[in-house]
Amino acid sequence: MDKFVVRGGNPLLGTIKVSGAKNSALPCMAAAILTEDEVILENIPQVRDIETERKLLESMGAEVELGYGRAQHRTTIQCSVLSDPEAKYEIVKTMRASSLVLGPLVARAGIARVAVPGGCAIGGRPIDLHLKGLEAMGATITQDHGYIEAKADRLKGAHILFDKITVTGTEDLLMAATLADGESVLENAAQEPEVTDLAAMLTSMGAQIEGAGTSTIRVKGVSKLHGTRYRINPDRIEAGTFIIAGAISGGDLNVDCCNPHHLEAVIMKLQECGVRLDVGKESIRVRSEGKLQAADVSTVEYPGFPTDMQAQYMALATQAKGTSVITENIFENRFMHVSELTRMGANIKVDGRSATVRGKSPLSAAAVMCSDLRASASLVLAALVADGETILDRVYHIDRGYERIEEKLRGVGAQIRRMGEVFGKR
Length: 426
Ligand code: UD1
Hints:
This protein is of the alpha/beta class. It folds into two domains: about 5-20 and about 235-420, UDP-n-acetylglucosamine1-carboxyvinyl-transferase, Chain, CATH 3.65.10.10; about 20-230, Enolpyruvate transferase domain (UDP-n-acetylglucosamine1-carboxyvinyl-transferase, Chain), CATH 3.65.10.10. About 30% of the residues lie in helices and about 25% in strands. Strand 4 and strand 5 (about 75-80) form a beta hairpin. It starts with a strand and ends in a 7-residue tail after the last strand. Uridine-diphosphate-N-acetylglucosamine binds near residues 123, 125 and 307.
């Protein structure tokens, strides 16, 4: 199991580039199921979840090519035949976003079998709303031997009102609706940029979609979708993580190839903390002398402060003067990073969905354990300012969603390296 060794204390200086959004790439790859034609996706991040999705699509009979060399970050997918429309437990258990194939499979093949996703480190994360929506579209849902099966000769357009805002649920049903018979209306839909990204890709395949990026999405079903070539948007969470890296390290960092519009809530919050941010068209320059002020944060759906930035913000809050109350409203049990940050010297008390961080606390290096993707990012950020050499174990969590983060951070002056499993370095 790989580990990271991080020696804290260096301010980050220079330019760091943001990759394509993992959470857009995953549904866009699933959308390739909707057509027999070739789909080419560009700006695909080279992260483990993408490799997992490739395996998932291949296990169903799709041909998937992940580009190397000059074609790096491009993937070509062709689902001419879907010989086995099933998402197996071995894959679903490692990546819950596998449930994104449910809608497109039923829409295209008339049947989908998807392993029931088990509990997950950051809460229950059920898919009941995906299933309720598919039922409303005329699918028959059954469950046996740990698998959910959805069947429909042809899905019918439906009026779906989500009880709760769900990102992948919105994406799943949006994909299903593109090939349904008639019009579908998705209300209380997620407005995240990744939903808009998917809708733009589907539109380029011939889908008829209105209102993506708002809470009401209308889809007129068509009988067939065609192939496309589509470029994935930049990853707003990776960009936000780098902005905090610049701020926490007291650096002068240019976060390049990002979309600042997608980061408004994060930008405003960091300005409140005293971080200097110069926002360009596709870049954000972050400057800080390390004098940070505490500020409260509540996670909410887009365009509010993202839950996927909560752990990284908490690392910053440990270095801010005063008390910051951080409230997690989207997921239960998303404070696993707290115990590790505390072991590094942070003063954090959790009460239900809120964590109270008192700063500024000097952090000292320790051996810490990554528990999920964003928690791992928060530990890397803390390690950048800790006194001494932090060793992060189980960095496979971070590899799920950050492309070569250690190389990118090293490029702007961080002292971070990856250790292979058996003593050796890589
Ligand atoms: C997506 C993102 C994830 C992000 C999250 C919230 C991907 C691949 N992942 O996850 O990084 O943290 O959005 O922005 O895009 N819920 C139900 N029933 C359902 C579906 C969801 O009760 O059928 C609940 C969940 O338990 C959670 C809330 O709704 O409390 C939001 O979850 P959801 O938006 O679905 O998260 P994901 O789409 O899994």
